[in-house]
Records
---
Amino acid sequence: MSEFRMTIAGKTTDNGATFGVINPATGSVFAQAPECTREQLDAAMNAAAEAFKDWRRDDARRRQALQDCAAAITAQAAELAPILTQEQGKPLAKAMEEIMGASFWFQYTSTLEIPVEVLSDTDTSRIEVRRRPYGVVAAITPWNFPLILASWKIAPALLAGNTVVLKPSPFTPLSTLKLGEVLREVLPPGVLNIVSGGNELGSWMTSHPVPRKISFTGSVATGKKVAAAAAPDLKRVTLELGGNDPAILLPDVDPKKVAPQIFWGAFENCGQICSAIKRVYVPEKLYEPLVDELANLARGVKVGNGMEDGSQIGPLNNKPQFERVKELVGDAKKHGARIVTGGEPVGGSGYFFKPTIIADIQDGTRLVDEEQFGPALPIVRYSKVEEAVEKANATHFGLSGSVWSSDPARATEVAKELECGTAWVNQHLAILPNTPFGGAKWSGIGVENGTWGLLGFTEIQTVNVAK
Ligand code: NAD
């Protein structure tokens, strides 16, 4: 692997200390990433603050820059994809999809407009509601989708006129560092700075005096720390946090028809998606047929190294996550749940876990109540739809959820009862660049994507002119 370096003030940095990045398919370190020092973080923040002075002024230039970013990402996709697969674990084709998705997000975002509303325009006054950028945005991303989640932050932040200092997860810093190199060629110095390091670097960023806005994606526990760190300085925050998404099947559903969608809604990216299906509520009469269908799908999937042809599900990304999935599945077994298929690691040195379907399990079990973030899906029985909705809502999480039925109108009525940011009907994981995405309750504050996400990188300025 070539050397990976940070991007600060448009330049590559000399690496001092580094840390090892593990390939989860092998369990071994395969590359080194730079450990950002406090001085380097200060330099990145100062470069972003300096670049902001000019960057905020020319809307057309920013729009063009986003299109140039999209083209640059597409041009380098083949180089980025194997880096992403080796640090994250996902199959190469999925890494490519993520990268092309990031490019598309830049392209789409470049077409958005920031509205100016004229509230009144009379002989005596004109009142406009305008939007200003914040200044420097500190952006922090997790390890499940490092590049697409970075694009959700960088593209709208830059379009709105902000500049950015972004830190990827220490588990997956490499593809983002490479992205910094790629975008360095098309953005003015200081507009986008990429730093890497451990969790401590994240807390230096959130308590740093320069940024006025923090855009964070990660777990609920860290999100609360970020909110607390932002409070003394009243920094604005957008928090995209964890989820425990329910899928509710109504009694008129055909289990055979919906099973593949439910399966991939849960197991895509090895279950490591904030808004993946994490628990399924099924009426008694459909219960065994659905469990059978899901178990057959789980048995038929090829789990393997993402660099090998044909792998559909890679390993879990890291050792703590691998241990956590083992622990939650073990706890379910201990409490009498039925492991229909899977239930254990594949074996060998990587963090591979067999796709697991768990039946005869209830709310109150950790695997149902907590966010497993891995390839183990609990299937829960219900007798009345109201009861399923109540269980679905009996949680601090509120990211998304789905309702499945042959009657979409009826399912929509049920979906609207879910206490979550996105309610899907007869689909799950339909996330689009023009559609706001965010969590209710502990799943977050604010939204990303579309005009709503863009406005999250601005604050209102009322301009009231006496004539
Ligand atoms: P995490 O919270 O452990 O880490 C996320 C990022 O925060 C990493 O870059 C980490 O280094 C940094 N960090 C850690 N401690 C910090 C601190 N004190 N201050 C500032 N930054 C700090 O999350 P993870 O394990 O990387 O990601 C998995 C979680 O992310 C899951 O809960 C998942 O549901 C959630 N997620 C949410 C969304 C969404 O859009 N809602 C998307 C993807 C993932």
Note: Residues 103 and 183 are 11 Å apart (CA to CA).
---
Amino acid sequence: MTDRLKDKRALITAGAQGIGEAIARAYAAEGADVLATDINGEVLAKLNAVDGIRTQVMDATNAQEIAKLVGAEAPFDILVNCAGVVHHGSVLTCSESDWDQAFDVNVKSMFLTIRECLPGMIKQRAGSIVNISSIVAHRGLPNRFAYGATKAAVIGLTKSVAADTVGDGIRCNAICPGTVQSPSLDGRINAFDDPDAARKDFIARQPMGRLGRASEIAAVAVHLGSDESVFTSGIQINADGGMSI
Ligand code: NAD
């Protein structure tokens, strides 16, 4: 522990597994007081054993649940928006319900949490919002139609919030990961007829020749959440194994 986030209170969505879990653990290790939320209470509960982390079940698409939690817990110094869902398919196979769900979980959730957390941040004239986008926001990848559209929207949302709050001491930035080992990635890989070949394909598209680790995305989130990045707002950091070279 090096206390890079000492005295900071952080709210994290989708903290139960993958990148969100890694961010919750890294933030706590850096001295933050972390409230990790997720829709999956069963998986989330393991984090209650970690010093510095409390958990609460929250659906990041549910405005009432968010308002209740933030009303009881605000102000936060850091908000990490990590909730996301990947739909496989092109424009020709995307259903309207897939499209709507993708935008609800990947984009609307950010609108809702930011809307609730911002007043407390503005009052204290400090706050850092970290939105998890994806490299697919910048680079078209096959069968990521709805997902790519949502993650590009996250960049626009991030810049809009940054523009509106830059005079209030608030920063809003995004992280664009490449392909990162996570439970849901395993699920996507195992859905292929030949999972071994699918894993090799995922790895092959990353110039560094391997999948990312959730802890490597968490390291960027620590930087953006901490005062080290206090002069930085409205940007995205690509942590993508070289996909954007
Ligand atoms: P994951 O997909 O394995 O887990 C996602 C978590 O989100 C789960 O714990 C799930 O319960 C939770 N969740 C889903 N809907 C929710 C909702 N409505 N409210 C609250 N929680 C909800 O984790 P991951 O693969 O690390 O992905 C995390 C984020 O990182 C997502 O936004 C994803 O799009 C993004 N991302 C992941 C990768 C990757 O390769 N893993 C790459 C780029 C971006």
Note: The chain has eight helices and seven strands.
